[in-house]
Write a structure and sequence with these properties.
Blueprint (H helix, E strand, L loop, with lengths): L13 H13 L10 H4 L8 E5 L2 E4 L4 E4 L14 H13 L8 H13 L5 E5 L2 H16 L3 E5 L24 E4 L4 H10 L4 E6 L17 H12 L2 E5 L12 H5 L5 E4 L10 E5 L4 H5 L11 H16 L2 H22 L4 E4 L6 E4 L6 H12 L2 E2 L14 H21 L1
Parallel strand pairs: 3-13, 5-6, 5-7, 7-8, 8-9
Antiparallel strand pairs: 1-2, 2-3, 4-10, 9-10, 11-12
Helix pairs in contact: 3-10, 4-10, 6-7, 11-13, 12-13
Bound molecules: pyridoxal-5'-phosphate.
The site of pyridoxal-5'-phosphate has 14 residues, from helix 5.
Length: about 425
């Protein structure tokens, strides 16, 4: 089957394109491009946005989109969510980054320790990458072993130990070995091949690789991992940065019966304000206390204040049930709309964090063309990366999306 994305630069994205051309002169690549669908399918997506409201995005050309990327998962309540923004604004006026931390850091740590299952302490940074990198360092120090295991195609951040940059000069990856998610036999083999040298296994609660359907943990996976880690004196690090509060108030590990020693969070915790968090069990506390943990901006209190308000709102309204429900509606609607035009699709991952793939579309060409058509009709999807639902997505947004998708699938069928 041969198809193509709608060609040429759509004039409705002309200001975006103009900015992109300017940016290319002063910003390598113009945007942090490899993540952006506009980089893969030039001309069919906006590059630059002006503002967001609820689940809507407005680009620099004034186009409106129902957004299913939610700031790559960082927005969970809605763009511009008043109670969170108001709390952040007040904190900015009083002082965001002062010379030392503010009481809100203690308050937020207490809130997290109260709600995240089995965790007894928290430290804060700016990004998910900070949290996973700290976790790996603390695991190495705590176990006095060098190697960490990660699943192939799992994303844990942009640091050299885990990034997709594979330049030989970046040798940090030498002490990282890869297994296939859900393949406990392979994990066991790696433990024996690197006997006595494995500090930790790093996993996401379920596997959400880019360019491929998401995979849920197999029955028994976490029990077996736990047993292996315990026998081998290795730690289990849960990278909960992407799922982060969309699955379970007490942490996604509870959803799947995992027993991590360290948990990394970030993304949605402050509804879009930059905050990374590393949490740990009591047994990990002294290793963390002895570790040099610092960053000039890591004690900034506006994002922490916004995190407190986000968590409070999530106690007040059932965001998890809501995102699941609208996610289920979206998945069912898209599947039906696809089949009306003769397409068979698979919706993978939890409904609140779904990913759509066409069956029999190994290089995602159909997905790219479909997402490009959807962007032109005002729905922002990503052909290679999972999507996110938020508390701001209403049933009417899903209905509008499915109606546009129906037209999109029809147009796609006509292009084949
Ligand atoms: C599972 C996972 N871990 C870590 C990260 C890195 O987080 P950040 O981009 O905030 O550094 C991401 C970001 O997409 C992620 O999805």
């Amino acid at each position: 089957m041969k198809t193509r994305a709608p060609s040429d630069y759509d004039p409705r994205f002309s200001r975006s394109l103009e900015l992109f051309r300017r940016a290319e002169r002063v910003i390598p690549g113009g945007i942090y491009g490899t993540k952006s669908p506009g980089f893969v399918i030039p001309g069919s997506f906006p590059y630059y946005f002006e503002r967001g409201e609820g689940c809507r995005l407005y680009d620099v050309d004034g186009n409106e989109f129902i957004d299913y990327l939610c700031g790559y998962g960082s927005m969970i309540l809605g763009y511009g969510y008043r109670p969170v923004v108001a709390a952040g604004e007040a904190r900015l006026r009083a002082g965001d980054l002062l010379t030392g931390p503010q009481p809100v850091m203690v308050e937020l740590a207490e809130m997290l320790v109260d709600r995240i299952d089995a965790m007894e302490w928290a430290v804060f940074a700016k990004n998910g990458t900070d949290a996973t990198t700290l976790a790996v360092s603390i695991a190495r120090v705590a176990t006095d072993k060098p190697i960490v295991m990660i699943a192939s195609h799992a994303y844990h951040g942009a640091a050299n130990w885990c990034s997709s940059n594979e330049y030989p000069i970046l040798r940090d990856r030498d002490e990282v070995v890869e297994f296939h998610y859900n393949d406990i036999g392979m994990v066991r083999d790696l433990f024996s091949r690197h006997a006595g040298r494995i500090a930790a296994v790093v996993v996401t609660p379920y596997h959400h690789p880019a360019f491929a359907p998401s995979v849920m943990p197999a029955p028994g996976w976490y029990d077996a991992l736990h047993e292996l880690c315990a026998t081998e004196h290795a730690l289990l690090i849960m990278d909960d940065i992407r799922a982060n509060f969309r699955l379970n108030r007490a942490g996604s590990h509870v959803e799947f019966g995992a027993r991590p020693d360290l948990i990394c969070m970030g993304k949605s915790i402050a509804n879009g304000s930059p905050l990374g968090v590393l949490l740990g069990t009591g047994a990990m506390k002294s290793a963390a206390a002895g570790f040099f943990i610092t960053g000039t901006f890591w004690t900034a209190s506006a994002p922490m204040t916004m995190a407190v308000r986000t968590l409070e709102e999530m106690d007040r309204v059932d965001v998890i049930a809501h995102t699941r429900r609208v996610g289920e509606l979206l998945c069912a609607g898209l599947t039906a709309a696809a089949s009306e035009s003769g397409f068979s699709i698979t919706m993978s991952g939890p409904p609140a964090i779904p990913f759509m793939t066409f069956d029999d579309d190994p290089d995602l060409t159909l997905n790219q063309a479909f997402c490009a058509l959807m962007a032109r009709s005002g729905v922002y999807l990503h052909p290679h990366h999972n999507w996110f639902l938020s508390y701001a997505h209403r049933e009417s947004d899903i209905e509008t999306t499915v109606n546009r998708a129906r037209a999109g699938f029809k147009a796609l069928a006509a292009m084949l």
